[in-house]
Automatic annotation (TrEMBL):
Protein name listed in UniProt: Replication restart protein PriA
A GO molecular-function descriptor: 3'-5' DNA helicase activity
Keyword Nucleotide-binding part of the UniProt annotation: yes
GO biological process: one example: DNA replication, synthesis of primer
Entry-linked HAMAP family: PriA
Record function comment: Initiates the restart of stalled replication forks, which reloads the replicative helicase on sites other than the origin of replication. Recognizes and binds to abandoned replication forks and remodels them to uncover a helicase loading site. Promotes assembly of the primosome at these replication forks.
Domain Helicase C-terminal: 540-694
InterPro entries: DEAD/DEAH_box_helicase_dom, Helicase_ATP-bd, Helicase_C-like, P-loop_NTPase, PriA, PriA_3primeBD, PriA_3primeBD_sf, PriA_C
Length: 801
């Protein structure tokens, strides 16, 4: 038999299956989707079996060395999906297979021989010397051969495992069970000599509790040691075996069981539509548009319940930062042990264990961040993507996939619906819903029947003119004081992205924009120049405002730490908690800050986008946005959309329970439509307005984008290669495609590498992938060196830096 293997060598020449002979003794073992070790040139490397065939064209086919898995780690569907992903993203097939698996399975493996029985045959006991695990090296040094190992494995004495760090990936325990039934046990106890009290007690124990019990627990409960257990095991009165236990990251937490509430009319309507598609096994895509607090999560959960009732499985994606303990609690509370949770705060071992629960079909629901879309379920009945507009669903390195696209592809494979949910859908998704490609479902009302909190817009230009040079407006300060007196809490939001990149007049709020691209120009400190990174238009940094001639024009931005200092000076008695990348670096810090705030150990929570999502505290009655403009003026055509989404999300944090909430938004551009319309929660009007600009400037959803970024330690090299690429694309793509560039990337230098880019805007370019593949092939040799050329291609860029 021949195994076709994708080897772990990500290059163009190796981007195809290689044939290996399956040795006689492994024919029963090797299966499609397993990892194997194969000889490759002088090395031995890892690979995935993607096919098994009877014969090969290859003349001198080498045998594969080893099989790493007992059960396949990739299903046939996932292997197929990997192929699709490779063609979509122009990645290597191996990279696409790797991206679907937990880290532990990709890292360097280590072979180990595990003891599976308390008592091994004499010759093995001699080798193990009481230990539980032998390294492969020790085994190899022993006199035993492969077929003997196999015999012991078959008999259940030993197991062969492949581990990264054995301590971390798996835990095992010894379990004891009685070797006979109750009656026989009683007879035996009668025969035991009276001085063997402890042995008697051990046997006694199983009369009351005949179930298997961990050895450790048994010994403590009976109050004895191994010494009295051993003779009983030896005589076969009791049996011992080894059991793998999966770590539960939520061990020790208890989750109160919740019951589904009866749904409102709107919720019921949405759910009925979803469930109908589940039953018809139809891969419909639904866009569930519901304001914050409208009960979307409840619709997800009850729909999932229907899927489980049918014996099928469900994936629910949430953005990493929304995967809060509160969220996990809701799902665990409803579905108990049927849920696995996958997110980046887990250790590699914990992630692997959660993944194993899915693989072993111990769970039917997975709640997780982006990569959970690859959960190895076999009977998917529903995929849900909450907060579907979040850009974190796009992977930004290596295999640049969007979880939404993968979800739709998997749904087609399984014949199941996809639900995209959001209070502020992405323009792409809403446009598709308008065209009827997606089915629109709406939840227009908040559950608590409260109106959305009132939003006050503060014009920071006016504050300046009145002599207030601080970053806190008079009104915001008063409202913060008021909350302090009433014992209520406030949340202050500061966007730190876009720090110091755009240039704005403090007097009139004018921001310097590219005349051709409708995005703000980026300040490059070194040359004192302003550049548009879409089209490379540039001009010198102005010394006075082109609008009002004020000299207060400068680049913009402040960090959270600075803001905290100012705030403390302004309101010395306030207890402030700061939440940003710096204060949440340690594991558990995020949760700790939220718990402190929830316990009212602070009056003000100051933070970055991290605090925009998922917060649900009844005592928060004021939300302040310090600088709405910092997001609005990112050099990104989605800046208005992001601003609208963020302001809506942030506002949704106030007044979620009985107490009424209030929102203050400080801005230098209070008249901007995204700020205006966010303050009245008018998504549809915002959509209509934003679509006009997208159409006018040829952006998605009217046009598609492709971003090709070139980097090189030498700036001329980077520029020159980008120029050639742009030229080649201009020549080969159709007339209707705009090829923009070469242009310096907004982050012009990272790690001493210079970065240039070419942007393609197009309607339909069926041959685009082919041309770009040719470019990549052409430069392949130059890209081999660590320190040489790098070219990355992003077919649906969200990060334009
Ligand atoms: N049918 C219902 N009956 C009673 N309470 C409900 C119902 N549906 C939802 N709720 C409750 O209303 C609150 C808001 O619902 P939920 O969190 O599902 O809304 P959401 O749209 O997901 O919110 P957000 O987008 O702001 O996170 C929750 O406390 C939830 O338990
Ligand atoms: Zn001005
Ligand atoms: Zn431009």
């Amino acid at each position: 038999m021949i195994a076709r293997v994708i080897v772990d060598v990500p290059t163009n020449q190796t981007n195809r299956p290689f044939d290996y002979l399956i040795p006689e003794e492994l024919t029963e073992v090797v299966d499609i989707g397993m990892r194997v070790i194969v000889p490759f040139g002088p090395r031995k490397i890892m690979g995935y079996v993607v096919d098994i065939e009877d014969k090969t064209e290859v003349e001198k086919v080498k045998p594969l060395e080893e099989v790493l898995d007992v059960t396949p780690v990739l299903t046939p569907e996932l292997l197929q999906l990997g192929k699709w992903l490779a063609s979509q993203t122009l990645s290597f097939y191996i990279s696409c297979l790797q991206v679907m698996l937990p880290q532990v399975l990709k890292a360097k493996y280590k072979k180990e021989i595990w003891r599976m029985e308390e008592h091994l045959p004499e010759e093995l006991e001699h080798l193990f010397q009481g230990r539980d695990v032998l390294s492969n090296e020790e085994w190899e040094a022993s006199p035993y051969k492969y077929h003997q190992l196999k015999k012991w494995v078959d008999e259940g004495s030993l197991d062969v495992r492949y581990e990264v760090k054995s301590k971390e990936t798996k835990r095992k325990i010894t379990v004891i069970e009685p070797g006979m039934d109750e009656r026989e046990l009683e007879e035996l106890i009668a025969d035991i000599p009276p001085q063997a009290k402890k042995q008697k007690a051990l046997l006694d124990f199983f009369i009351d509790y005949p179930d298997p019990i961990p050895k450790k627990d048994l010994l403590t409960q009976v109050g004895t040691t191994d010494a009295s257990l051993k003779p009983l095991l030896k005589k076969g009165h009791l049996h011992s075996y080894t059991q793998e236990i999966l770590r539960d990251p939520y061990e020790g937490h208890t989750f109160d069981k919740t019951n589904p509430p009866s749904l409102t009319t709107h919720q019921k309507h949405a759910m009925d539509r979803i469930v109908a598609s589940v039953k018809e096994e139809h891969p419909d895509v639904f866009l569930l548009h519901g304001v914050t607090g409208s009960g979307k999560t409840e619709v997800y959960m009850q729909s999932i319940q229907e899927v489980l009732n049918r014996g099928e499985e469900a994936i629910m994606l949430v953005p990493e930062i929304a995967l809060t303990p509160q969220m996990v609690e809701r799902f665990k509370g409803r579905f108990g042990s049927k849920v696995a949770v996958l997110h980046s705060a887990l250790s590699a071992g914990e992630k692997y264990d959660e993944w194993r629960k899915i693989q072993r079909q111990d769970v039917q629901v997975v709640v997780g961040a982006r990569s959970a879309i690859f959960a190895p379920f076999k009977k998917l009945g529903l995929i849900i993507i909450d907060e579907e507009h979040e850009t974190s669903y796009k992977q930004e390195d290596r295999t640049r996939y969007h979880a939404r696209d993968v979800a739709i592809q998997r749904a087609a494979n399984h014949g199941c619906p996809v639900v995209l949910g959001s209070a502020t859908p992405s323009l792409e998704s809403f446009a598709r819903a308008q065209k009827g490609n997606y089915h629109l479902l709406e939840l227009p009302e908040r559950m608590n029947e409260q109106a959305m909190p009132n939003v006050e817009l503060i014009d920071m230009r006016a504050e300046l003119h009145e002599g207030n040079r601080s970053m806190f407006s008079q009104s915001l300060k008063e409202k913060l004081d008021e909350r302090l007196q009433k014992g209520e809490q406030s949340v202050l939001f500061l966007n730190r992205r876009g720090y110091s990149t755009f240039v704005m007049c403090r007097d009139c709020g004018h921001v310097v924009e590219c005349p051709y691209c409708d995005i703000s120009m980026t300040y490059h400190r070194k040359q004192e120049q302003l550049k548009c990174h879409y089209c490379s238009y540039e001009k010198p940094m102005p010394t006075e405002c082109p609008e009002c001639e004020s000299k207060t024009i400068r680049y913009f931005g402040t960090g959270t730490q600075k803001v905290e200092e100012h705030l403390q000076q302004l309101i010395p008695e306030a207890r402030i908690l700061r939440m940003d990348v710096d204060t949440t670096r340690r594991k558990g810090a995020h949760e700790k800050i939220l718990t402190q705030f929830g316990n009212h150990e602070a009056d003000i929570l100051l933070g970055t986008q991290m605090i925009a999502k998922g917060l649900d505290f009844g005592n928060v009655t004021l939300v302040g946005v310090l600088a709405a403009d910092s997001l609005l003026n990112l050099p990104d055509f989605r800046a208005s959309e992001k601003t609208f989404q963020l302001l809506t999300q942030v506002s949704g944090r106030a007044g979620r329970h009985e107490k009424e909430g209030e929102v203050v938004v400080q801005t230098y551009t209070p008249d901007h439509y995204s700020i205006q319309l966010a303050s009245t929660y008018d998504f549809e009007k915002f959509y209509a307005e934003e679509m006009k600009y997208r159409k006018m400037f040829h952006y998605p959803p009217f046009y598609y984008l492709t971003l090709v970024t070139v980097s090189h330690p030498n700036t001329f090299q980077a520029q020159e290669v980008t120029r050639k690429i742009a030229q080649y694309l201009k020549k080969n793509l159709s007339e209707t495609a705009d090829v923009l560039g070469p242009t310096p990337s907004p982050l012009e230098r990272i790690n001493n590498r210079y970065r240039y880019q070419t942007m393609i805007k197009y309607k339909a370019e069926p041959e685009q992938h082919k041309f770009i593949q040719r470019i990549l092939n052409y430069y392949e040799n130059d890209m081999k060196e660590q320190n040489g050329l790098q070219i990355t291609v992003d077919f649906q860029p969200y990060q334009l830096m």
